[in-house]
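Re: the request from the purification team.
They wanted to know what the chain is likely to look like in 3D before they choose a buffer screen. I agreed to run a prediction and write the result into the notebook, where they can find it.
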Amino acid sequence: MRYAIVELHDVSPFYKEEVYNAIEFLEKLGIEKFSLLLIPNFRGEYAINRYVPFLSFIEKTKQEIIMHGYTHTGKKRIQYFLYTYGEGEFVEGDLEETYRKLEKAVEIFQAMQLDTKVFVPPAWIGSPWLDDLLYSFGFLGVGYRGKIRNLQSGEDIKSPVLTFSNRHGLSYISIKTVPILFKLFDRYPVLRLALHTADFRDRRKIALWRLILTKTKKKGG
């Protein structure tokens, strides 16, 4: 691993306390640069333009803000059971529906003068037309589970994601497997460390993230 990207997923007023704790955690560890994956309107109930103090806090961190879906909700699909359970927002819907979701998300960001050129779909799952629609809205990059895609050139950078599950049963399994995967992923030039706000409800995950981030810093990632 030559380079590590630290990401905080599911940034939303819904997870306000977890967001505050996560950012404090990263700052205390001396992580100078990380990305905040901000959900424009979590579950259709937490539009960020209605939570100005929260948004002001996010902006004051001076960290990169990335658009993370629109509502972060979708139908439960058995084929994606291992990856998500009702959060694969852009798996479903035709081209027109996907366009409307992106349009609403972009409108919220623009109303709050938030500028981002990178998009990460919830659960890292897209659709056949997502890339083209993102590019039409001015996005330059999109992050999927195993790669980061340059929307201008179409080039992919192989980049696995290290993350915990926060679902019953799978959560325990991920706690056991993430340290192993951290070693296996070391052969990749770019590794994404995807912290989720819900991780900060679990002391075991916090401890493991502290260990992983500390080791990453020592490697110069």
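For the purification team: The radius of gyration is 17 Å.
Please add any questions underneath this entry.
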